[in-house]
Inverse folding.
């Protein structure tokens, strides 16, 4: 098996990048993990900056990066590995970074960094992250949103009213050597300065303001680097908006933010000016929501933000626009699943940072497949209208089942069951009608598909929650045991069909929640475990043994709380027994062990959060213990030397693994 097929409550499949990723400008795609290990940061990245040696800095609000506890500011080296020696650990949000020689300056909303008191501004050693104790700015009254430097001047923008103890509204300048506030001040009414961009002669400010030094400047202004005097260039931002980011390419100046007009001309959230010209150019991509960051290079303009459309094209939080036409480029569409806040260029790559946990994936509604070698989504895309309950396969097809009514985004009507192409996910003509619209389990064997669920008819003929279909002729077979309750799980073992669920009878024959049939459809009269269950959730079967999970407390007259191992022929209990503080709901078997999931937090008195490995026959708890965080495991599949886990968790073993992970069967360590 080189692909893993999955169903669930999701709309996207993609690489586990974390909140930072590198975009390759030559291949137009996210840099693969084999060339650059994913950063796997949590939280939100608001600021990034190349280090000048092939690596980069990131700042924001986070506490884990590549499994290491590093808070809010980190350095990643040229091999895409987090620098473990760089740990300033500011106690708050980092919003801006600029580099000067062997030092970096960081700004944000923090009170301490590197164990040293610093109010929203600090100077650090660029290699070690150590605080420069000789550079001691005073108190800043708000957040620092933007930093830039030139010579001995550090330009600071934010939402403050005092900067380093001096009255400065939104903008000021500090000496990079002494931290003394420059006496030159620009009087503004700024609510905030969000971005500062520097070229050879000018400093451009963007934010929320209406005037500088008494001169009208609505959200956007140019200062001369010589003396910081206000130039005559006076474009304006309106529509109740502001500028978040500024970029330059040649004689073009690009702006991004939240606005509806530039200098009175309609422009939605991005625009372009010729240098020195107040009115925007005709370039008009028409981005439909706030744009946080913009970067321009080689005839392309990269934007990140809260949008999902550029012009008429769907672009999820990130897009690349032709610098000549303003049209979003079709070759550049790495979908993100949350906003991007920062974009910077490093050699032939872009640093992308934001609030996403993955970027570069594909949309997949409720069902999809991953290539186990590359980790990338395959083209298989059934696109159901609701989440399927599960899937099974034969030599030619993937079958999905549940309570859906259509596939292909509504193009194909299929009620509860579909036979799909294993490559594309497009359904075949295989089409049946189920009353109550729910198939809960399916298994294919010898060209017959066995179905269990909550239905009373198939193609208008009465069937009691169990049915079978001849996969060659397509006919529904006459086998009709007439169960009186839902069937949840089916499995075939040694020419027998096993079923579990909520039933208590098949026809007039009592079978409490679990039963066994011959493949000719006859009920096995010798297999009849007694129990006090009202529902059997799931079972797995291997090596002549069934591991059964349900809500029982007694099985075959013996105390067994919620789980039991029984002989597949006789139905009698084995000696396997263990204590758990909550229920087991799903299992998968290896030759020697069961891998189980549930809502438990302890097994045999030992901590096990929703996931455990127990020995067949004895129930002895293994030391295997992948640490799930921020959610539970719902499903597990044993494959070769791996255990594939799906659920609601976000981290595994302190690494970002949202909702899906692959771990080693023996050690529990993550498979990269």
């Amino acid at each position: 098996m080189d692909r893993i097929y999955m169903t669930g409550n999701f709309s996207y499949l993609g690489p586990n990048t974390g909140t930072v990723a590198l975009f390759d400008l030559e291949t137009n795609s996210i840099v693969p993990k084999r060339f650059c290990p994913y950063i796997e940061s949590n939280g939100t990245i608001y600021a990034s900056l190349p280090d000048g040696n092939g690596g980069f800095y990131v700042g924001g609000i986070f506490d884990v990066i590549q499994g290491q506890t590093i808070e809010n500011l980190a350095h990643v080296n040229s091999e895409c590995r987090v620098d473990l020696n760089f740990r300033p650990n500011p106690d708050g949000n980092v919003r801006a970074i600029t580099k000067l020689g062997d030092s970096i300056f960081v700004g944000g909303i923090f009170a301490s960094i590197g164990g040293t008191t610093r109010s929203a501004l600090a100077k650090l050693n660029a290699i070690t992250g150590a605080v420069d104790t000789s550079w001691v700015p005073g108190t800043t009254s708000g957040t620092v949103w933007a930093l830039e430097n030139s010579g001995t001047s550090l330009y600071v923008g934010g939402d403050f009213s005092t900067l380093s103890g001096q009255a400065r509204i939104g903008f000021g300048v500090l000496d990079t050597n002494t931290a003394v506030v420059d006496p030159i001040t620009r009087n503004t009414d700024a609510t905030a300065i969000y971005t500062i961009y520097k070229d050879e002669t000018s400093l451009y400010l963007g934010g929320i303001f209406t005037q500088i030094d008494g001169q009208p400047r609505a959200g956007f202004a140019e200062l001369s680097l010589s003396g910081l005097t206000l130039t005559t260039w006076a474009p304006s931002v309106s529509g109740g908006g502001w500028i978040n980011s500024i970029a330059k390419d040649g004689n073009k100046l690009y702006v991004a933010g939240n606005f509806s007009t530039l200098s009175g001309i309609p422009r939605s959230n991005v625009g372009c000016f010729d240098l020195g010209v107040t009115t925007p150019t005709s370039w008009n991509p028409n981005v439909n929501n706030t744009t946080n960051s913009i970067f321009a290079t080689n005839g392309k303009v990269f934007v990140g933000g809260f949008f999902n459309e550029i012009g008429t094209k769907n672009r999820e939080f990130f897009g690349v626009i032709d610098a000549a036409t303003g049209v979003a480029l079709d070759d550049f569409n790495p979908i993100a699943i949350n906003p991007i806040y920062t974009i910077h260029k490093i050699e032939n790559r872009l640093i992308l940072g934001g609030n996403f946990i993955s970027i570069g994936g594909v949309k997949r509604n409720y069902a999809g497949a991953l290539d186990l070698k590359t980790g990338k989504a395959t083209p298989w895309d059934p696109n159901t209208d609701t989440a399927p309950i599960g899937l099974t396969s034969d030599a030619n097809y993937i079958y999905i089942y549940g309570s859906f009514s259509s596939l292909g985004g509504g193009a194909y009507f299929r009620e509860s069951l579909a036979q799909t192409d294993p490559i594309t996910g497009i359904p075949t003509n295989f089409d049946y009608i189920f009353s109550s619209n729910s198939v809960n389990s399916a298994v294919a064997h010898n060209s017959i598909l066995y179905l269990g669920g909550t239905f009373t008819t198939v193609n208008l003929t009465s069937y009691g929650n169990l049915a079978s279909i001849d996969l060659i002729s397509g006919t529904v077979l006459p086998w009709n045991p007439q169960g009186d309750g839902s069937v949840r799980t089916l499995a075939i073992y040694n020419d027998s069909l096993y079923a579990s669920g909520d039933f208590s009878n098949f026809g007039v024959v009592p079978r409490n929640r679990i039963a066994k049939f011959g493949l000719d459809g006859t009920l096995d009269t010798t297999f009849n475990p007694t129990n006090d269950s009202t529902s059997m959730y799931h079972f797995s079967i291997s090596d002549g043994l069934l591991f059964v999970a349900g809500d029982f407390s007694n099985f075959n007259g013996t105390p067994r709380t919620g789980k039991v191992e029984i002989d597949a022929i006789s139905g009698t209990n084995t000696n396997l027994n263990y204590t758990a503080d909550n229920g087991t709901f799903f299992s998968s078997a290896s030759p020697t062990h069961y891998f189980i999931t549930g809502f438990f937090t302890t097994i045999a008195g030992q901590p096990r959060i929703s996931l455990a490995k127990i020995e067949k026959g004895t129930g002895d708890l293994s030391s295997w213990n992948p640490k799930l965080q921020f959610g539970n495991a719902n499903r597990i599949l044993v494959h070769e030397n791996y255990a594939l886990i799906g659920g609601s968790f976000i981290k595994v073993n302190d690494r970002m693994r949202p909702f899906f992970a692959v771990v080693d069967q023996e050690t529990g360590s993550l498979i990269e």
